[in-house]
Amino acid sequence: MWKSSRQKMTQKALRFLHRFPRGHRLVVLGMAMRRRIREDAVTAWASKLTLYLLLSIFPFLIFLMELLKVTALQDPLITQELLGIFPMEVVAFVQYVLEDLQTSIRSSGGVLSVSILASLWAASRGIMVLVDCLNRTYRSVESRSYLFLRLLSLVYTLALVLLLLVVFTLVIFGNNLTQFILGHVSLPVKFEVLFGSLRFLVTLLFFWLFFLLLYATTPYRKAPLREVLPGAVFSTLGWFGASFAFSYYIRYSTTISYMYGSLGGLVLLMVWLYISSVTIIVGGTLNAAILEEKKEST
């Protein structure tokens, strides 16, 4: 009874929205998104992705930081920018674990290079699970071999490292340029704020490029860049917005510290990774829903 009444109301609303083509299309897209999120079990897959991201994130950071030591990018600002990816409440926990792991790697002596390569191999596992999630959103059946997927994950992990190195280079160059300008020219305070905003925009652009390449190249079904643009924009803005909201909530909530005590940092990291996983998968779902809507309208 209730289900049939709801269907009638939905049909009436859609008939009314036919007078406004753009509004009608957005509603249809929203309904397709809702259906796909339910059918694809997005929350369940996000939980799985969270586990593998948790297992991958520290090996990835270790590999990146060890790589930075053999480049000219040894700068305290780099560590600050790298840890700035995480919510403020998680930074202390991540920094503690990284320092502990780096101490263990240094004590290994001759097997340092092996440890770094093992870190890269472990970090690529998260990309593999992400490929599975995106294949599910496109309803694609994966036929590529395990070895190929493993190599693809390694290549994409290395590409992510290179993108980060480029961003860090731009950050250091921009910071040095800013200090030089401010040291020789007296500028109003608003210009200093502007320089800080430019650094944020560079980070935003990096994440947008990361998501764009992720959605375009990793799934079995290849897609042109213009087709995955909406999902990349959604994931970038959604990830930053969700991270900000999460930090705001944690800052004024003491529930987690009371409930989990010394494990609070780990729990916060897992919750943040889960939010990130949902955002990434929903971004892929948005691309798939738009593609489906275009096919139905032609």
UniProtKB/TrEMBL annotation:
Alphabetical keyword list: Cell membrane, Membrane, Transmembrane, Transmembrane helix
Keyword Transmembrane: yes
Transmembrane spans: 49-68, 110-135, 147-173, 193-216, 228-250, 270-291
Membrane topology: Multi-pass membrane protein
Keyword Lipid biosynthesis in record: no
Predominant location: membrane
UniProt xrefs under Pfam families: Virul_fac_BrkB
Entry's localization field: Cell membrane
Cellular component terms per the entry's GO annotation: plasma membrane
NCBIfam families: yihY_not_rbn
PANTHER family for this protein: INNER MEMBRANE PROTEIN YHJD, UPF0761 MEMBRANE PROTEIN YIHY
Protein name: YihY/virulence factor BrkB family protein
